[in-house]
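#structure-requests
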Amino acid sequence: VQLQESGPGLVKPSQTLSLTCTVSGGSITTNYYYWTWIRQPPGKGLEWMGAIAYSGSTYYSPSLKSRTTISRDTAKNSVHLQMNSLKPEDTAVYYCNAVGMGREYWGQGTQVTVSS
């Protein structure tokens, strides 16, 4: 399974971020797989943001839930992250991750900088 993140590298404060994780080599509806967004701010550790399950159920970090939406497009086999009201502290490398059946896959990550 290969995951590829895409989206804008630079976003202004208060704007909305939209990222796409395009999946190949496997289906996002495969049983028991969870498709996750994780980010890493500069100089900090990994932060779990949320996930969408093979069933379509979604799960969010309590600290980000009010600003984050994770969705999927089964026709395009892709998972999406939308985060609104961006702040400079949202600057990070954003990763798409898949976990299921004892396996884990990562995308290469995409840098997002929030700056005016």
